Amino acid sequence: MSSIICATRGGEACRRTQEKAVALAKEQGAELTFLYVADSSFVGPVDKSLADAVTDEMARLGRALLRVAQLRARDQGLAAQTVVLQGTVQQSIKDHLRQVEASTLVIGAPRTGTPPQTFTPPEIQRFAQAMRQDLDIEVLVVT
Question: Which of 4, 62, 52, 54 is CA-nearest to residue 32?
Fold first, then answer.
């Protein structure tokens, strides 16, 4: 059975990405997992205890956001799994895709003019291309 990973961070833009992942999973009869990465590197250099506290809070937020995504999938008649990882976003996603041998990654692209995001539009395209080449999987970038 094919496996779809939907990397998400919550928010209105991610709702479109989640909805696309649900539709794709239903269409393909694939398993769906929503993935959130708690990456505290955005706070810059801080002592370990603060970085750990920020990461723990981000993971807690991630679990709540993923539960909402999971409920949205259930409302569409699809059971979805959730995974919260800790680390840098790009490497954590890549490592997870490799570990579970996913067939497809669904990820959202920030819209131009929105506040700074984890990825800029060119970065998301480079990341998607790298995942296609390195892991030989389908990558769907939802705008």
Answer: 4
Q: What is the pTM of this model?
A: 0.91
Nearest to 107 by CA among 21, 27, 3: 21
Residues 15-64: pLDDT tens digits? 999 999 999 999 999 999 999 999 988 777 778 888 889 999 999 999 99
Q: Are 140 and 20 in contact (CB under 8 A)?
A: yes
**Cβ-proximal residues to 30 (8 Å cutoff; 6+ apart), any chain:** 1, 2, 3, 4, 24, 103, 104
Domain ranges of the chain: 3-142
* Overall fold of domain 3-142: Rossmann fold (3.40.50)
Question: DSSP state, 140?
Answer: E
